[in-house]
Amino acid sequence: MKMEPLRPILFHPHIPEIEYIEQTLLPDIYEVRKAQTVEELAGAIRRLGIRGAPALGCAGACGVALSALVAKAGTFLEFLFLVRSDAERLRETRPTAVNLFYGIDFVLSAVLTSSSIEEAKCNAVDAAKAVIDADTRTCHAIGKTGLSVIPDTARILTHCNAGALACAEWGTALGVIRSAHEAGKNISVYACETRPLLQGARLTTWELLRDGIDVTLITDSMAAVLMRKRKIDLVIVGADRIVSDAVFNKIGTYMHAVCAKAHNIPFFIAAPLSTFDEENSEDKVIVEERNPDEVRKFRGCVTGPELVPVWNPAFDGTPVDLVTGIITEYGIFSLPRDIETIKQLKRGKDMGET
Ligand SMILES: CSC[C@H]1O[C@H](OP(=O)(O)O)[C@H](O)[C@@H]1O
After folding, report:
1. What ipTM, to 2 d.p.?
2. Fewest beta carbons within 10 Å, which of 7, 33, 296, 309?
3. 117 C-alpha to center of ligand 1: Å?
4. For the segment 189-206, what is each residue's pLDDT rounded down to a tens digit?
5. Has this prediction a pTM greater than 0.80?
6. How far is the CA of 116 from the centre of ligand 1 (A)?
């Protein structure tokens, strides 16, 4: 039985509100919540109730549109001030996934280029819908592009959650896996649990079981021995920001890339063009460091001494020479070889993509 498409964010401008699946409660509790203020939305982003680079782009876009719809201003200038300050509040929620800033900026520019409050509200809603529609198309295109690298029988390792829950729908890394499964390929997935917030254990397994795709849950530390035993044919993960010399993705990705290289296993990134930040390099990227208690506890269960010092970066950078290919909606690219092609594509594309 084909399941309904999984869409973690729905924008209802007529109310107005942003409806979302509260991902911190999955897999045991499926709860839909509604953000009717930018602060409620920002809180959901900060706690990873809404998460995943393309989904953050959609959330940022909808957040600016929500701000425009609810702003109470006497003058157009006051209105612009209110929307810009809400956009800044959304920008400050998480620093690494570049899609968040594209989504915010795309809708904010639609507001700033309007000539009245009413026109700005309409333009903001249209722009936010364009971001969501673009990401939906992009994820399905990434899935299709990725088919060329998936053998007819493939044992795929993935890390964190780059699925429908991280996008408008379908997913990037899981989008390739879904497309391959739909194309009749014999796919089995090893999902790394992804400490400390367990996006792999909680979200990726839940998505793949829901779609009837073969999945085995492993701890992050089990990946290396599976590669050594030749149990993995390729690795596919998502990305939060791709710069000229590195790919930033969930912490632990670099470890898998080094392991894959050591065992001559192809290592692919699946990401939309809007995840590329080709003007920057690894040393310029701010890597989000999160609350130490995320490592000392999980849902109240103590996993480390209360006073133990903790380092909790949410992402790591993988040098591009460890990446076999980057699967995008426009094709499969390699860095640094294709950087100019990527720049040209980004200059020419509709800025409605996240
Ligand atoms: C489709 S991009 C998903 C990407 O985002 C995740 O990070 P987080 O769960 O902290 O938002 C992870 O890096 C995934 O690969």
Report:
1. 0.98
2. 309
3. 35
4. 999 999 999 999 999 999
5. yes
6. 37
